[in-house]
Amino acid sequence: MRTATSVLRPKPSLLAQSQSDPDAFGVFYDAYFDRVVHYFVRRTRIPETAFDLAAETFAQALERRHQFRGSNAPQEASWLFAIAHTQLVRYFRSGALEHSALSRLQISLPPLSAAELERLGGELEGELAEAVAALPTRLRQAVRLRILEEHSYADVARALGVTEDAARQRVSRALERLRLTIGSQAT
User: Fold this and answer.
1) What is the 3-state secondary structure (H, E, C) of the chain?
2) 51: domain CATH number?
3) Given 104, 125, 149, which residue is the final one in a domain?
4) How far is Cα 109 from Cα 154, in angstroms, rounded to an integer?
């Protein structure tokens, strides 16, 4: 017979188990991957970027799993999403993905399949295209060059005939407007 306290006890941490059992990290990954990808999709609105950010998040979690001090599933979820949040902040601040943990672990990412892209971003495509089209021309050009075509800020600045700081500001303003526009549509 179950007691009230056993029903309320959180599940044990897969991440904590992975410190001594490497196979447990695979189970941890499977348990959280979709949630982490959807976290990034809702915030970046770019499925490929969301997938890359999720991969870097799990690579860092794998690399740092011995730093985890929790003992249950809610604690491991909080720990994982703290890493995810840090990745997202770095992405928005730098305008680029860093693959440092993936590189250190020598993990390469396969491209997303058409089915994965459709699953992650089908509903986002129309609203993102509308939001980008609504941007002022100078911001739309900056975000197209930097985000969609993945040019460096120096290249964006040259193409737009502005300083690199001005290019960064335009991209930042464009992303903020897109975040506000799409964020208001999501609620």
Assistant:
1) CCCHHHHHCCCECHHHHHCCCCHHHHHHHHHHHHHHHHHHHHHHCCHHHHHHHHHHHHHHHHHHHHHCCCCEHHHHHHHHHHHHHHHHHHHHHHCCCCCHHHHHCCCCCCCCCHHHHHHHHHHHHHHHHHHHHCCCHHHHHHHHHHHHCCCCHHHHHHHHCCCHHHHHHHHHHHHHHHHHHHHHHHC
2) 1.10.1740
3) 104
4) 27
Per-residue pLDDT of the chain (187 residues; tens, 9 = 90+): 555 555 667 788 998 999 888 888 999 999 999 899 889 888 887 788 888 899 899 999 999 999 999 999 999 999 999 999 999 888 887 765 555 655 665 656 556 566 655 655 554 566 677 788 888 888 888 888 888 788 888 998 999 999 989 988 988 888 888 877 766 554 3
For residues 168 and 95, state if they share a domain.
Answer: no
Q: Are residues 84 and 149 in the same domain?
A: no
Maximum CA extent, the chain: 73
Domain residues for the domain of 163 are 134-186
Residue 27 lies in a domain: yes
Domain boundary, last residue among 84, 104, 124: 104
Residues 95 and 138 grouped into a single domain: no
